[in-house]
Write a structure and sequence with these properties.
Elements (H helix, E strand, L loop, with lengths): L1 H55 L1 H19 L6 E5 L6 H8 L12 H8 L5 E9 L3 E8 L2 E7 L2 E6 L4 E3 L11 E3 L3 H11 L4 H4 L2 E7 L3 E6 L4 E3 L5 H15 L6 E5 L7 E4 L1 H14 L6
Parallel strand pairs: 1-3, 4-7, 7-8, 10-11
Antiparallel strand pairs: 2-3, 4-5, 5-6, 8-9, 9-10, 11-12
């Protein structure tokens, strides 16, 4: 009897445990379903409310109020613009920089749009690159790098100051740049950078250049300030310029009575004398039997 009762008791306990597990499983499933339902309803409410607030203008109003509140807090904390400092400018006036930056004294320092200020400053003709930074507690610094004026470009009966990259800078106050070489020819602005790169080793000597003509869209003819014409080749421009520089250093070639120095034929330098110098040398050859070497 005791064995039968114990078996019945064990079966009863076993059944209770199974029922508990089943009930627990149903509860978990029911809870997950409730959570999913609540989540879905919340999303729908959020989307619907956002759309309503956006349509009604309340969202924009709240955002504006929050922005004003933040700006007021910055002002109360003393983080406002009290000075604007500019560095690196030579051709650009402080007035133009201030006007382009559009920064007002008393504005919240951390509320300024640095990217927008940079974009506006870099629209100034002379400005090549600008860096804008905050300097706590109360300053904005504007550091600019200006275009380097390299030549006066004559095009369409008009003169422009252009940079070493061939960028048109300005057509105003040209008298201040009268010492720059004048370039001409269609496409001369685009070819200028390659010319300046080729003569970089003798850039002091390049200061003697009065004008530079871009011939046929292929090569350069340079006229020096003493009137001598340098005819550069289409290719290997740097090699020809190096040879000219060496001839000037060793032979003082350009101090002589010559008209042109022609480098158009590879490996050959052709020098053309002035008529007076040619006559003088012919006379010397007749009287002394020899001429002067160049």
């Amino acid at each position: 009897m005791r064995a039968v009762r114990a078996e019945r008791h064990n079966n009863k306990v076993s059944m209770k445990r199974g029922e508990k597990e089943a009930i627990s499983l149903r509860r978990r499933r029911r809870m997950k379903a409730i959570i999913r339902g609540v989540t879905l309803v919340s999303i729908c409410i959020f989307v619907g409310s956002s759309f309503y607030f956006w349509q009604s203008g309340l969202l924009e109003s709240w955002l504006n109020s929050a922005e004003v509140s933040v700006e007021d807090s910055l002002v109360d904390a003393g983080l406002t613009v009290e000075q604007v400092m500019a560095t690196g400018h030579q051709q650009t006036t402080l007035e133009k920089i201030d006007q382009a930056a559009g920064i007002n004294i008393g504005e919240p320092l951390l509320g300024l749009d640095i990217s927008a200020i940079k974009t506006r400053v870099e629209k100034i003709k002379w400005v090549k690159r600008a860096t804008i930074s905050r300097k706590l507690p109360d300053a904005i610094t504007i550091n600019i790098t200006e275009h380097e004026p390299a030549a006066l470009w004559q095009v369409d009966n008009k003169l422009w100051v252009i940079s070493d990259e061939g960028i048109k800078i300005t057509d105003e106050q040209l008298a201040a740049f009268s010492e720059l070489p004048m370039i001409s020819g269609i496409g001369a602005d685009l070819a200028l950078e390659s010319l300046l790169s080729a003569v970089v080793e003798g850039d002091i000597f390049f200061n003697r250049v009065e004008t530079a003509s871009w011939v046929g869209g292929r090569r350069w003819d340079l006229i020096l300030k003493n009137g001598i014409k340098i005819m550069l080749p289409e290719r290997e421009l740097a090699s020809a310029w190096t040879e000219l520089t060496m001839l000037e250093q060793t032979e003082k070639l350009l101090a002589r009575n010559i008209l042109t120095v022609d480098f158009r034929i590879k490996g050959k330098t052709v020098v053309r004398l002035t008529p007076e110098e040619a006559d003088r040398r012919r006379l010397m050859a007749k009287t002394s039997g020899k001429g002067e070497e160049i």
